[in-house]
Amino acid sequence: MGMGLVSKIVKLGIAKKVYDEARKPENQRRAKEAYASFQAKRARKQ
Question: Which are the contacts of 28, defined by CB distance < 8 A and separation ≥ 6?
Answer without folding.
Answer: 22
